[in-house]
Amino acid sequence: MPKKNLSPRLRDQTLQEQDGLQRKNPPRSSSQLRRGHFFRALFLRPVSPDSSPRQKDNRGILAFNTLLVVLLLSGLMWFGFSRLQYTFMWENVWIYRVNLFNGFLMTILISLGSLLLSTLLGVFFGLAQRSRIHILRIFSRFYIEIIRGTPLLVQILIFFYVIANALGVENRYTAGIVVMSIFSGAYLAEIIRAGVDSVGTTQIETAKAIGLTKPQTYRFVIFPQVITRVLPPLAGQFASLIKDSSLLSIIAIKEFTMAAREVNANTFSTLESYIPLAAGYLLLTIPISFLTKRLEKRFSYET
After folding, report:
1. Which of 134, 215, 150, 160 minimizes the C-alpha distance to 187?
2. Contact 237, 191 (CB under 8 A)
3. Are 241 and 184 in contact (CB under 8 A)?
4. Which of 129-133, 169-173, 220-224 is predicted with the least confidence, judged by mean pLDDT?
5. Does the CA dihedral 204-210-215-220 come out positive or negative?
6. Is the dihedral of CA 168, 169, 170, 176 positive or negative?
7. Which residue from 111, 92, 91 is spatially nearest to 103, judged by alpha carbons?
8. Integer Cα distance of 260 and 276 in angstroms
9. What structural domains does the chain harbor?
């Protein structure tokens, strides 16, 4: 069909509307486009074609944004302490540096022992929940629910003053490691149980169909997938275990937190005693996060 000619009035109105739109949204110059692209690349991660979250970022851009975050946090801390008008007396704490260092070493030893034993307990009770033996499965549920439903402080007191005393365990450090392992093992058991249950039943049935035994199925089919899925919550639980070890001071275990309390009681330097405490726990927990990231990449499998 032939186009109808617009009336002069309608044509003028259309031209005025187009001219108004151009004035409101003028075309960008090439320099403006370059500046916009630069700021987007500086603060935003580019969208990959496959929408994969594992793409690599530019190291320079990451370093720049990390520096911004550090400066922001440093400025916030400086603002808070400047308003506090507090005079730091670090020389008072320096006198007790050996006491703090010994407490830090004790925390490392307790944490390592608890991490190893709690991992064994977590794997055992996590798999026991899938056992065909009724009493083992029921006992596992009782253990997990009781430990997760009661405060750690109460567990430490009952275990040390009641159970350990009845069993003749007099070494408070051994009792501390055991009770921390029992506490953390309940959480690890649930993490591992959830990781195993996340593996599809079709994969297990396929493993049976090709003749794999149950141990082979766990070794070659289930565990490679479970490791990647449970690493982030495991890292969080391990970090919590290290920090929760500070509660062992209630049974007179001279770990890092108790050493800081003693320094504070002797010098009345509260911030000078507890700031090194926070830094020490960061030195113990941050490597766990970095190691977990490395292991996630190492055991990354396509399913």
Report:
1. 150
2. yes
3. yes
4. 220-224
5. negative
6. negative
7. 111
8. 8
9. 105-298 (1.10.3720.10)
Largest Cα–Cα distance in the chain?
A: 106
Q: Are 224 and 295 in contact (CB under 8 A)?
A: no
CA–CA dist 224, 222 (Å, integer) = 6
44 neighbors 61 (Cβ within 8 angstroms): no
User: Between these two residues, 21 and 86, which has the higher pLDDT value?
Assistant: 86
Nearest in space to 234 (alpha carbons), one of 201, 189, 270, 279: 189
What separation, in Å, do the N-terminal and C-terminal C-alpha atoms of the chain show? 57
DSSP-assigned letters across all residues of the chain = -PPPPPPHHHHHHHHHHHHHHHHHSPPPPHHHHHHHHHHHHHHSPPPPTT--TTPPPPHHHHHHHHHHHHHHHHHHHHHHHHHHT----HHHHHTTHHHHHHHHHHHHHHHHHHHHHHHHHHHHHHHHTT-S-HHHHHHHHHHHHHHHHS-HHHHHHHIIIIIHHHHT---HHHHHHHHHHHHHHHHHHHHHHHHHHTS-HHHHHHHHHTT--HHHHIIIIIHHHHHHHHHHHHHHHHHHHHHHGGGGGGGT---HHHHHHHHHHHH--HHHHHHHHHHHHHHHHHHHHHHHHHHHHHT----
What is the pTM for the complete model shown?
Answer: 0.76
Note the pLDDT tens digit of each residue in 181-193. Answer: 999 999 999 999 9
CA distance 140 to 146: 10
Q: Give the C-alpha separation, 263 to 135, whole Å.
A: 49
Is-contact 222 204, C-beta < 8 A?
Answer: yes
